[in-house]
């Protein structure tokens, strides 16, 4: 049996400009698709997590209000365009993180290992998501966003990821 050169992944065979385009456009598609699912019409959903998702959030962050404050702080402190996430890591921990541009926690090649995992909540921090209504007031945008989080979907996402990782 011949041992040739190591097999390159598909992405390694593509020119860098194509890889960058796939990363940006693919990330934009995944992130926005998720973002819309994590939203619900105002006054139509629970005002906080339910069931096992709620218990897991409280286990990691204390009260729901402490979680909300930590998530808001991370989103406010993110510099420039990007996303804020609640991520379920393969080790079973929940973490709050942000990513720049169209990166997301699924992109293990581009995010710190401590932030890699499957997201169960997403917040768009690109200016286009809030400028027309809130101008440069990201804080007011985030405060309003909490009123339209689809906590039923967060609970479903939590159930799915705990099933994937078998925890």
List the helices and strands and how they pair.
Blueprint: H1 10-13, H2 16-37, H3 51-61, H4 64-77, E1 82-88, E2 94-100, E3 118-124, H5 131-134, H6 138-145, H7 151-165
Antiparallel strand pairs: 1-2, 1-3
Helix pairs in contact: 3-4, 3-7
Report on this model:
The protein is an alpha+beta fold and 167 residues long. It has one domain (12-165): minor pseudopilin epsh fold, CATH 3.55.40. It has helices at residues 10-13, 16-37, 51-61, 64-77, 131-134, 138-145, 151-165, and strands spanning 82-88, 94-100, 118-124. A three-stranded antiparallel beta sheet has the order 2-1-3, with helices on both faces. A hairpin with a 5-residue loop joins strand 1 (82-88) and strand 2. The longest helix has 22 residues, at 16-37. The model has no long low-confidence stretch (mean pLDDT 90).
CATH topology label: minor pseudopilin epsh fold
The CATH homologous superfamily is named Iron/manganese superoxide dismutase, C-terminal domain
Strand order of the largest sheet: 2-1-3
Report the principal-axis shape. globular
Rg over CA atoms, rounded to whole Å, is 18 Å
Query: What is the CATH class name?
Result: Alpha Beta
Secondary structure: number of strands: 3
Largest sheet: 3 strands, antiparallel
Instruction: State the helix count.
Output: 7
Unreliable runs: none
Q: What's the structural domain tally?
A: 1
Helix-strand string: HHHHEEEHHH
CATH second-level architecture: 3-Layer(bab) Sandwich
Q: Span between N and C termini?
A: 41 Å
What fraction of residues sit in β-strands?
A: 5-15%
Q: Percent helix among the residues? A: 40-55%
């Amino acid at each position: 049996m011949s041992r040739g050169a190591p097999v390159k992944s598909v992405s390694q065979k593509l020119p860098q400009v194509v890889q960058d385009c796939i990363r940006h456009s693919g990330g934009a598609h995944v992130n926005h698709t998720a973002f819309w699912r994590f939203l619900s019409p105002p006054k139509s959903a629970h005002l906080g997590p339910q069931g096992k998702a709620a218990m897991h959030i409280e286990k990691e962050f204390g009260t729901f209000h402490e979680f909300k404050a930590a998530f808001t702080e991370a989103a406010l402190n993110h510099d420039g365009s990007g996303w804020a996430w609640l991520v379920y890591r393969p080790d079973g921990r929940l973490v709050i993180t942000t990513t720049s541009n169209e990166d997301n926690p699924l992109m293990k090649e581009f995010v710190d290992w401590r932030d890699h995992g499957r997201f169960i909540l997403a917040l768009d921090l690109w200016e286009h998501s809030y400028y027309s209504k809130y101008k440069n007031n990201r804080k007011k945008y985030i405060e309003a966003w909490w009123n339209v989080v689809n906590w039923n979907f967060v609970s479903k996402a939590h159930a799915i990821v705990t099933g994937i990782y078998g925890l």
